Amino acid sequence: MPAVVIANNGDVPEFEGRITFSVFVCVVIAACGGLMFGYDIGVSGGVTAMDDFLKKFFYQVWERKQEAHENNYCKYDNKKLQLFTSSLYIAALIASFLASKMCSKYGRKPTMQLASIFFIGGVALTTFAVNIEMLIIGRLLLGCGVGFANQAVPLFLSELAPAKIRGALNISFQLFITIGILVANIVNYVVGKIHPYGFRISLGIAGVPALLLCFGSLAIYETPTSLIERKKVEQGRAVLKKIRGVDNVDLEYDSIVHACEVASQITQPYHELMKRESRPPLVIAIVMQVFQQFTGINAIMFYAPVLFQTVGFGSDAALLSSVVTGLVNVLSTTVSVVLVDKVGRRALLLEACVQMLITQCIIGGVLMKDLKTTGTLPNGDALVVVIMVCVFVAGFAWSWGPLGWLIPSETFPLQTRTAGFSFAVSSNMLFTFVIAQAFLSTLCHLKAGIFFFFAAWIVVMGLFALFLLPETKGVPVDEMVDRVWKQHWFWKRFFNDEQVVEKKAIEMIHPHVT
After folding, report:
1. Closest to 432 measured CA to CA, from 136, 155, 150, 152
2. Which of 85, 216, 261, 281 has the smallest CB count inside 10 Å?
């Protein structure tokens, strides 16, 4: 299992190196895992708004849409339709734990390759599905691909990146997710006019980013940390020189070797993860993922076309509005890329909480006031909803979206990194599943009140970020314990220095005791 480097002084070591073309290529190809995930988020919501898709697989929902006095909040309330979207995430949840073991035993690169193969298989089944069973099995395979990719890619990016720009490079994963969503929205808008198989084109194009990752990953390097961890020491040094662009990598190389030596003493990483001193990063990782979903973002992104149809836009106009929100998503994520290593993680999170809270309350207020169970919103109100959705998406895209993945990937010590991050990924998938499976039914029961439900969660998130989330800007991933957790007013209580000294003394006498 991976390990932790502990500095002997209070200063962050400055490792030599520069941003090389090799790192750029590795980042772009690896981030195609985010492109896969993002495209699926966008396409699954888009095809559920297409009549041809509904007539083929969810005929009852299509019939309900045709009714003259359909209930605005309940017309898409169908368990099987929700299962089409949410089944992927339950498969990803389970796959993330298997991916964690594969990451440690075989490396980050093969894990990403297997992710793309799962995804390609899922695309084939969903594209050529003739019944709902075939469709759901395809979604489960897609889920395995997402679970493996979301486990491997953020770790790969964090370990590959120099500390001073780790945030920006890691956020490329989220940036590619947003690009995938935007591309899916554009594709949905274009092929929605192709009858009766336009939805099959949308589903089939999902194979493109998977193929890019599958073949592109043959050309990228494994991370030096993973190579050294698996006893490929000289290969790890050689790769470190290539990605840093300098020959003198001794300081960083020695820190990685030391980290791996410490980590090699841990034979049961999941058991280690349950210890008191492992709780701070574990709690942060899980809570960040839970909060990311309870912003309400995936409810909006999954069902944006459905939501816009609900407030009165026609089918084509709803898909076009989704393209607009997708574009806002991409542009706003670039804001995070630029600012995350300058202003820090917490500032972006706190500002976004205020922004998202205001927009959710305005959306809920407009719908509660003017959208009844039948009829549509006045044009002015419908435009307000679209604008507020865009402002909401912007706030999420430069904060909880990318940082929900970045922070858990950089805060675990190496000996529990892959195991700990698997909890983050599985938590994300679990609560994404919950939101995807429950949103349309909850919308039917709570109506506009669902937006106030998410607003209440945003208040809790803001308080958590203000008081309990430490700043990790500029801190090397293997310095987090000493420089972050042990310095935080609340989390430092989980680290007993006397116990640490005693443990080190025992390890010196009995080096094989874990």
Report:
1. 150
2. 261
